[in-house]
Amino acid sequence: MSNDPLLQPYKLKHLTLRNRIIVTSHEPAYPEDGMPKERYLAYTLERAKGGVAMTMTAGSAAVSKDSPPVFNNLLAYKDEIVPWIKQMTDAVHEEGAAIMIQLTHLGRRTRWDKGDWLPVVAPSHHREASHRAFPKKIEDWDIERIIKDFADAAERMKAGGMDGVELEAYGHLLEQFTSPLTNELDGPYGGSLDNRMRFCMDVLKAIRSRVGEDFILGVRYTADECLPGGTGKSEGLEISKRLKESGLIDYLNVIRGHIDTDAGLTDVIPIQGMANAPHLDFAGEIRAATNFPTFHAAKIPDVATARHAIASGKVDMIGMTRAHMTDPHIVRKIIEKREDEIRPCVGANYCLDRIYQGGAAYCIHNPATGRELTMPHLVAKAETRKKIVVVGAGPAGLEAARVAGERGHEVVVFEAASGPGGQIRLTARSPRRKEMMSIIDWRMAQCEKHGVGFQFNTWAEAETIEAENPDVVIIATGGVAHTDVLSKGNEFVVSSWDIISGDVKPGTNVLIYDDAGDHAALQAAEFLASAGAKVEIMTPDRSFSPEVMAMNLVPYMRSLQKLDVLFTVTYRLESVEKDGNQLIAHVGSDYGGVSKQRVVDQVVVNHGTIPLDDIYFELKPKSTNHGEISHDELITGQPQSVVRNAQGQFQLFRIGDAVSARNTHAAIYDALRLAKDI
Ligand SMILES: Cc1cc2nc3c(=O)[nH]c(=O)nc-3n(C[C@H](O)[C@H](O)[C@H](O)COP(=O)(O)O)c2cc1C
Ligand code: SF4
């Protein structure tokens, strides 16, 4: 038996958990019709197979119809969910993991124009900044109805074979009652702490009386809202003690902070560049004060930090939730002493930001997550060993090389630069985003393990590639910054990449014209403003930086607002002319009838990339498929069989930004889904 603290079993009431690592509740927005169907099952099961002790599924499954599924939540208020839950719990139990589900009523943290278009309810009329719904002030009959809804939903989950349910209190209806900031009720449910906690206690009592004792019940709650006038630390401690002393629950799952704004949410679930384990000591204080089973998750991205959390006795079970979205097989790798092979979570929060934009959660650098029905986490060996040449060692090229290497092919990668990374190297030049380099480092380590050869400082010509006598050539050369977008004066502008790379000296009075809406404009702004420049970011879009998304925007705003960067929306830069040492920027609008000027000394254009594709077009006539990819074969997971030129010497494919400017996830997904079938 291992003496690794993380691998010690834990007894939670009648349940023996096989180790100390859990996946905390999270809604990846995979439900279909509000049900956890095959895709949900496959996702959940992969983590159970990977060895996690307990997977807590369904963040925020809705118990009532007036808790509309704002991020495609599971609908726990429907009886038809029971067989779907049963299918999932049976499969997870079969793998030796425990499984719980999180239930909630979102209260004001949702929108009325979702689901059944019912008014949103809360214990006050105050709206939540993030979701914007003005709530109806909850009435006595709403309270009675929702308490019953919680008990009904818990009963369904027990019938579905769940080991227990967790109540999502923080930021949702339960804590909208507890927090003095959001509860303006009089009488039994408003006023004193006793009254503000009454709703939570009534819900717990109703559930416990329905599900009996042999069913785990826990609460995920904030023990310090970190907001003036909100639940502070001392009240949070008192709440923790009262929850324990109620005798109704079996563990506490501690959160610190508030989630009603993008900034608050980002402090609760920190992204890259923010400290690891920021609330672990706080969770430890709660455990010490209550001496009660305590769970916690908040940016514990690596095994060493998780091990410390358990070994130091700060918590009983440690959550590694996003870490398991990046690598579902963490525990197995710990057991097999292959920790160094764990694909690292880089805190990009692409996963979370997507669900708040109405999409499904995808991991920035593991495209198999959430696509378990079609994409492998473990790549199978190929039947025939082929010679594969990859051109470009950015994320797309490295993923293609990794996958091809893992399939047992002979792989060589040509890269013009002196090292791997492509655009990620530029991204990682912002100190806050340097965790992104792990996307590259992990792939390089995997490539080394699979014997992939690299030739850096090599500008691959057609002859270089042909000399390798390849069966397959994959072009992953990426793109170059595209600034040629003005009607006049393109020669006077520089690109955001020029600024980020340091190739161009920052100006003093700078206009950044951003119609790509991605990270590069904000990164350039930060470099410029930090160097002392006065910066304006202008976009023709309705809002700025639409591709950056909510939580990723937070650290930028924290920095750029302090640096007094100005944001101007709905204006289009049309042309630039030189006037002595200055540049005159002529500005119009898609809405018409406007003509303005800006006088600056530097104009930076951020307009994505254009493909670097010369080598592709040079090789195209020599290939068997003329570069064609069958979309049907790609999507259905078949080897590529297009032949347009039987005399060709090799198959030729193009992936990532060498095709068109997209993002890191798209580049890596292009590579995985092509290379897994070569
Ligand atoms: C896609 C996604 C959805 C989430 N949804 C929920 C949720 O519905 N309820 C909840 O309590 N936490 C939710 N979380 C938060 C996680 O449970 C966890 O607290 C958070 O990711 C921090 O832990 P980590 O750093 O180990 O990922 C979500 C997280 C992710 C990534
Ligand atoms: S998208 Fe980023 S934060 Fe989310 S799981 Fe992947 S690496 Fe981690």
Describe the protein.
The strands form seven sheets. An eight-stranded parallel beta barrel has the order 3-4-5-8-9-10-11-12, surrounded by six helices. The model has no long low-confidence stretch (mean pLDDT 97). The longest helix is centred in the first third of the chain and has 20 residues, at 140-159. Helix content is 33%, strand content 18%. It has three domains: 5-344, TIM Barrel, CATH 3.20.20; 387-480 and 611-676, 3-Layer(aba) Sandwich (Rossmann fold), CATH 3.40.50.720; 483-607, 3-Layer(bba) Sandwich (FAD/NAD(P)-binding domain), CATH 3.50.50.60. The chain is α/β, with parallel strands linked by helices and 678 residues long. It contains 22 helices and 27 strands. The structure holds flavin mononucleotide (FMN) and iron/sulfur cluster.
Features:
single chain, 678 residues, alpha/beta, TIM Barrel, Rossmann fold, FAD/NAD(P)-binding domain, 3 domains, eight-stranded parallel beta barrel, five-stranded parallel sheet, 27 strands, globular, binds flavin mononucleotide, binds iron/sulfur cluster, 2,4-dienoyl-CoA reductase (NADPH) activity, flavoprotein, 2,4-dienoyl-CoA reductase-like NADH-dependent reductase (Old Yellow Enzyme family)/thioredoxin reductase, FMN binding
Short description, anyone?
With 678 residues, the protein is of the alpha/beta class.
